[in-house]
Design brief:
Chain lengths: ~375, ~300
Amino acid sequence: MISHRRLVTCLVLLIMVNLVGVATAATPTEVRIGVYEPMTGAMAAGGQMTWEGIELAQKQRPNVLGLPVRLILVDNRSDKVEAATAVTRLVQKDKVHAIIGSYGSALSMSGGPVAQQAKVPVMGCSPTNPLVTIGNDYYFRACFIDPFQGRVMAQFAFEKLGAKTAAIIQDVAQDYSVGLANFFREAFIELTGDPKAIVGFTSYQTGDRDFTAQLTYVANAKPDVVFAPGYYADAAVLVTQARSLGLAMPFLGGDTLEAPEFIEIGGKDVEGVYFSTHYSADAPITPASEEFVALYKSEFNKQPNTFAALGYDCYMLVLDAIEKAGVVDPVAIRDTMAKTKDFVGATGIITLDANGDATKSAVVLQVQNGEFKLVDVVHPR
Amino acid sequence: MTLEILMQNIANGITLGSLYALLAIGYTMVYGILRLINFAHGEIFMISTYFAFYGIAIFALPWQLSFVMAIALTALLGVVIERAAYRPLRDAPRISALISAIGVSFLMANLGLVIFGGRPKTFFRPQLFQIPIQLGRIRVVALFFIIPVLTVVLLAILNYIVYKTKIGLAMRAAQWDFDVARLMGVEVDRAISVTFAIGSALAAIGGIMWGLRFVEINPNMGLFPGLKCFIAAVFGGIGNIAGAVLGGFLLGFGEIMLVAFLPGLAGYRDAFAFVLLILMLLFRPTGLLGEKQRVRT
């Protein structure tokens, strides 16, 4: 008898504990935002710069709906498998309400389906490959996409540099690079009207360090410009070797070249390299840009970069969506996030289209005297 | 393909091949004496580049001194690793030591991430090595010559040590049989320590050359060169020093020529290296210059 009564007491206690648990889940005490970024590995600089911006934004705006915001950072180690694991961890263990990330399209494409299945919305800072958001109604991004970026650089090469031929060296292990290389090729052929305008097309893999064979092949094709949309470290080593092999033509790249490491590693050899990116502190677009620049400078005492600005915007976009949703519920946040319109961010006015992509201007920067200098601003048509 | 491009690619192949060769020697020496594939070799190579980097960046040493110091410290590191992770397993099944090697490799790569940080560092680039040299229509920098010459010189020195000195004799004796060698008065543990010191010093020289050539260093850089050089060692016949050099050269050449002749497949050169390994293991498991299989109790 006694043991029965004990059992009943235990059950009652258990139910009560459960009820309390449910009650706290319904009225959360904090808003949890997961961040998955490459803090180590081949893209570490990108992830770390983005994280700087996210942290800065949180300092600026630490509360939403009267609740404190807690950021949970998981390092995806620049690895596709780790990226999926990182998102799984964020949704299952940390039970986050929204996610920010990730630098590197391939990483975002690997984390995306996990978030979609768990019904947690993700705001991407800088993954530019179109496939990141296509077919995933839980993935959004604060940046433009590569069909536009590829066209920007093709147009720049054709109109500003007067190039009639180009060679492409892509990073075959990165969806970002393969996508951007193809969009550049299509746009460049269309602009020149010459189906043979791409005189060389070759590849390498992230982390490769010897590019001499590819560059010898490119040198033989004698292009007017070389388009090499890879990550900063690989690209810097590539340009260094190109110069030592006597290739003197202009080298062009995408937004992933923007990292201090590109200049540190490349030194004098990367002088003159052009690349497109999302934003330049030299061309502030909105009142929020100026506010961000001032904030960043006082915090880090240096010129801000694109990825910090995008990280900052992403955090603000997520908070904006939570505020408009009025509840801390992932699905409700997704619904308001999808309706983001005329959001004034540091990197421009952000309106998300049906795919969840932003349409924004691009800037073209050039390495001049060891600094990134603004040379062109291109608006979307 | 014109002759000039072929010549340029041969120059490219020799440089890459000799870098692989420098690293492959370390694998092959350790395997030869311990029958252990030292998977930590790639990480030893990685750490050596950081020794050299910090010698210049933090202690402001002249680069020559920093390089010498890095080589010495790396040799010491190799000896310490052997003492801590392999010697206690000397009498355990061979697989235990192999797993210990993989553990050391992971430990060092992750320690590197924690200590050195995930973002890449820029290696020192003395102008001396970057002097451009024009040979007809072929363009190279001085380093293109320095690396292969260094490899050949080191190979000669190593051959002298192994075949002409007393410690070399001890190493060769230990290679045959620990117990019998001990009975003959050979200090086996010392011979093994020296083997690790030499193998690690060569990894350091390879690492410094790698840093000078490719400028960028990061804590994950040991993984792929490590695997490639393992392939080179197997290809040439693991356990055989000349074989490792030959394997390294052939692998470097093969990779460059694959890209040169089939630029569309350039992204798959790692796959090419692994296919080469599989084919070698299938058809000639002892490698090009491999010794005949001999059974050791």
